[in-house]
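User: Can you help me understand a structure? I only have the sequence.
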Amino acid sequence: MIEHIGTKATVEIPTTPMPSSARGVMHRHDDTFVSGPPWADFAKEMGIDGDAKTTAGSVYAVSIYRAAAGQFDALEKMLSERPNRAVDTSSGNVLMQHLEGGPWNFLTVARYDSWQKFATNETNSIAQTNKKEGGWFDLRQHISFHNDTLTDRVAP
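Assistant: Let's start by predicting it. Here is the structure, written out as tokens:
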């Protein structure tokens, strides 16, 4: 879940511990605070500005990256580059920087208009990887780890 909370956040500590009945059903919990573009820009890139029904079939690739030692600036520069529209079928992209929480530096969210657009992007990505330069090969020079999660939108 991504929630816009503005430029200042307050975390309140509960006065009572989590009940054992709740602890038993929780496997993992990893809240994180990030800094990103203004909410209006984020909403536009993610297709939730205006009439969100027009982007209801969107698919999102959420990725986290931890920079390798000495590679923070280079990784940020690479992740900040606009997609190559000749091969990238995403329709919105956002880069956010870690402030507090998980053990990573950057979070990106890429929006695809459909599962088909995502599949086309993956096919294009494989073709680019077969060139053995650029893209994934460059990224590997700057990261110590990276994870992707695919999701669709629950609301709005």
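Now, to help you interpret it: The beta strands are 33-35, 59-67, 92-100, 106-112, 143-152. The chain has one domain: 33-152. Let me know which part you'd like to focus on.
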